[in-house]
Amino acid sequence: MDHYLRHLRFGRGRAESTTKSYAGHLKRFERWRQSRGLTWEEAARDIAGHLIERRITPRAHPGRGRGRAPSDAALGPALAAIHGFYRHAADVGEVNDQVLRLLFEVIEGDRLPYGERERSLVLRPRLRVDARPSYSAHLGPPEATADEVAALLEQVATARDACMVGFLAGLGLRIGQLAAVRREDIHLVPPGRTVPGCAYRHGPHLHVVRRDGHPRGAISKSRSTNVLPVPGPLVMLYAGWLNERRTIPAAATSPWAFVSFDGPAHTAAGQPLSTRRIYGIVVDLAAKAGLRHIHPHMLRHAFGAAASDLDIARDVLQRLLGHDALASQEIYRHAGAARIVEAATLISGRLIEGHDVP
Ligand SMILES: [Zn+2]
């Protein structure tokens, strides 16, 4: 188990916060296993029993939710951690493959990164927590939790998808805004410097622009231009995607930031992604992670929830969410720009700090 956590942290370069969250879940699982004297194989057969026990045990540690039992949705990351542990244990021969067959069904992967187009096999967890959408109280909070965002990033197969999840959660973008981003909208300049034609000088940033020319109908909902600071970890995710994007020849001349890979016959490479496609990517990542139904707007809500946990000032949050977009000149020269950059850094740090690209 320690080996798995070290593998996550250093082998796969996962953020310390993810590793910490996984470590907590796995520690509880291990305590439960030992208290019942189960072998790893036996424990694998009764993961549901473990989750039910957690479902009815109030949280003891301080913080939000203390004294309450975790919701079904909150157990999704616990299940993702346990699944990840068993996959790793099978990889290194600590448990036998039978256990994997018990936990996962094998499906054919058809959403592979460019360059790995031969069909391969993907393991999909058999056991899921509240994976089907429903309108019952079991749906959980409307925002994705930081744990859930970490679990989504844990599942991404491409730098593109990591970047999109990162932008949805870490910048709080609407799905239509994400689909409509053009490469020219992202200015990766260090603080104090500008690019020609843009007066913003507070570091890397994204211009959220309303435009009607998106070939797949995506538009930014607010009419005015908004400027969002892009904190370091998100710059890294974007840089990783730009590298990957270079391997798609058809993308070279496309102005759109997020484009398709050379997929199965029905899709062409280098095309802008529709909002529908982005929605599907997020929902599929959640299913792969064994989480509840999570869609892109819940990542924007995660941004809002993190901001509220951090007591971000209302006017700053309004600016970041684009509720209070001023004329662009005012945004560039606004005295509060440093506060906005600081808030953006704190919020995204809560949600996607230090996540590396696959
Ligand atoms: Zn700019």
UniProtKB/TrEMBL annotation:
Keywords: DNA integration, DNA recombination, DNA-binding
Domain Core-binding (CB) per the UniProt entry, residue ranges: 1-90
Domain Tyr recombinase positions: 139-345
Domain of life: Bacteria
InterPro entries found in the cross-reference section: CB, DNA_brk_join_enz, Integrase-like_cat_sf, Integrase_catalytic, Integrase_recombinase_N, Integrase_SAM-like_N, Tyrosine_recombinase_XerCD
Pfam families: Phage_int_SAM_1, Phage_integrase
PANTHER family membership: PHAGE INTEGRASE-RELATED
Protein name (Swiss-Prot/TrEMBL): Integrase
Naturally occurring in which organism (per UniProt): Nonomuraea angiospora
Lineage of source species: Bacteria, Bacillati, Actinomycetota, Actinomycetes, Streptosporangiales
